[in-house]
Design goal:
Structural class: alpha+beta
Keywords: Signal
Distance between the termini: 27 Å
Shape: globular
Radius of gyration: 17 Å
Number of helices: 8
Oligomer: single chain
Strand order of the largest sheet: 3-4-5
Protein name: GmrSD restriction endonucleases C-terminal domain-containing protein
InterPro entries: GmrSD_C
Largest sheet: 3 strands, antiparallel
Order of helices and strands: HHEEHEEEEHHEHHH
């Protein structure tokens, strides 16, 4: 997960992994009253329910590794990907509606719908680009043994559903939690989120915990396709 901007500069990013799903649901109910969405962010490569189920079944279940040695610097992110545009800016353009950028590729206007909570924003500063599988979670799930080059590719992956523009405060609440302790406040998006999480872990060969697998299975069970 990435948090390049916040509404309150200087506020520390929480690292508590005990955020409850019940609280998240209440937050979603409050935030989803912001009106009709501008456009729903749709990262590429979201699998069908059947494909996600096969991928989930194939994932290795193991005890979670340690965060010892972890640093975000070991996952170089927001690299330049096209002209003057970095990864964050590319996702903002992809996920927004009528996005206008300046000569530095920074979004100066547009509308963004955050599918995690149902909120719509017109300022890019209100959005974070979430790493669906957080960087620290990836580290604990196998990325600690990767090369820095591979970690950079993971942190800037635009080919799959690993990056998505969402409300910054919702991204803060997620921090580095897995689906056993955090799911999108908007319950109708949990099927999609679960499929995204599964295919990212499968694509990158990451492990998962037993409690994480159970949560993902419950999320998949809510999917119609």
């Amino acid at each position: 997960m990435a948090r390049p901007t916040t509404k309150t500069p200087g506020t520390a990013r929480p690292r508590v992994r005990a955020v409850t799903l019940a609280l998240a649901t209440l937050v979603g109910a409050a935030l989803s009253t912001t009106g009709a969405p501008a456009a729903s962010a749709t990262p590429p490569g979201i699998p069908s329910k059947a494909t996600a189920q096969s991928q989930l079944n194939a994932l290795t279940v193991a005890a979670e590794g340690s965060t010892s040695g972890y640093s975000r610097d070991l996952f170089p992110h927001w690299i330049t990907v096209s002209g003057s545009c970095d990864t964050r800016e590319q996702v903002l353009k992809r996920d927004g509606t009528s996005v206008v950028v300046n000569s530095s590729c920074q979004a100066t206007s547009g509308r963004w719908y955050s599918p995690y909570d149902g909120a719509t924003w017109t300022a890019a500063s209100d959005l974070d680009i979430d790493h669906v599988v957080p960087l620290a979670e990836a580290w604990r799930s196998g990325a600690s043994s990767w090369t820095t080059s591979r970690r950079q590719s993971f942190a800037n992956d635009l080919s799959g559903p690993q990056l998505i523009a969402v409300t910054d405060n919702v991204n803060q609440s997620k921090s580095d939690q897995d689906p056993s302790t955090w799911q999108p406040p908007l319950s109708s998006y949990r099927c999609t989120y679960g499929k995204m999480w599964i295919t990212v872990k499968h694509t990158w060969g990451l492990r998962l915990q037993s409690s994480e697998k159970s949560a993902l299975q419950s999320m998949l069970n809510t999917c119609s396709s």
